[in-house]
Amino acid sequence: MENTIKIHGLQKLSMVDYPGKIAATVFTGGCNLRCPFCHNALLVTRLSESPELDTEDILQFLHKRRGLLDGVVLSGGEPLLQEGVMEFLRAVRELGFLIKVDTNGCYPEVLADILDRGLADYIAMDIKNTPEKYARTTGIPCFDMKPVKESVKILMEGRTDYEFRTTVIREFHTTEDITAIGRWLKGAPRYFLQNFEDSGNLIGAGFQGFSLGEMEAMAAAAGPYFEQVKIRGL
C-alpha cells in the first residue's frame, strides 16, 4: 500500500468505540496537539515505546473478521494527519466494513475529502473546550481555531452521521464552559460528555474528573442545545 499509514495500536474487539456496533479499533501514531490530560501519550509524545504495526497485517486481520465485526474505528493520535489515511480507509471499505473516524477537527480538508469519497459512516469529533480556552486546553499557544470551526461546519451539513464530544477535566472545564460549547454547536444531533480518567499514560499530571452530580449538571446545561446529550465514563 502506497503512503502507508502509521499504525501503533489495534484493539481487536470493542463494544463501546462505535455506538451500537461491534468493531475493531485501529490507532494511528502522532498528533498535532499536546493536550496535557491526553490519555494516549504513548501515541503522541512517546511513540518510540509503541512499535509500529504492519498495515498489511492489520488488513489481513480485518479480512479474517469479515462477518464477525460490524465496523472499524480509526482513532489515534490524530488519524487525519496521516498521509496514507485515504488509502487505508478505502482498503477497509473494500472489505465491507462500516467505518467510524475519530478526529480533533484540525484537518477540515481531509475530513471533507473523506466524506466526499464516502469513506466514513460515522465521525466523532473532539471539542476540547470553548474557543477562548482552546490554546490552554490543547497545549498549543496561539492555537488557530479556524480549522476546527470549519470541521464543525462540515459535519453540521449532515453528510454523514456524527457526534461531538468533550472530555471534561476539573482543571479545564466549568459548567459555564459547557453551556458556551452548547451555544457554539447548537443544533447538532448528539453531544457526549466524557469524564476524565487517569490512564496512567498522560502527557501531563495532576488532573481530576467530576462527580456524577457535577456531570449531570453539565449535561443539563448542554441539554437545550442538542437533540441528545449523554454522559460517558461514569
Would you identify the regions where 5 or more consecutive residues have pLDDT less than 50?
Answer: none
Would you report the number of β strands? 8
Q: How confident overall, as mean pLDDT? A: 94
Secondary-structure content class: alpha/beta
State Rg: 17 Å
Shape: globular
Please bin the fraction of helical residues: 25-40%
End-to-end separation in angstroms reads 40 Å
Keywords:
234 residues; globular; alpha/beta
Walk me through what this model shows.
β6 (161-168), α6 and β7 form a beta-alpha-beta unit. By secondary structure, the chain is of the alpha/beta class. Strands 1-2-3-4-5-6-7-8 form an eight-stranded mixed β-sheet, covered by helices on one side. It contains seven helices and eight strands, in the order ββαβαβαβααβαβαβ.
Give the topology.
Layout: E1 7-14, E2 23-28, H1 55-64, E3 71-75, H2 85-94, E4 98-103, H3 108-116, E5 122-126, H4 134-138, H5 146-155, E6 161-168, H6 175-184, E7 190-195, H7 212-222, E8 228-232
Parallel strand pairs: 2-3, 3-4, 4-5, 5-6, 6-7, 7-8
Antiparallel strand pairs: 1-2
Helix pairs in contact: 3-5, 6-7
Give a short overview.
The protein is of the alpha/beta class and 234 residues long. 28% of the residues lie in helices and 21% in strands.
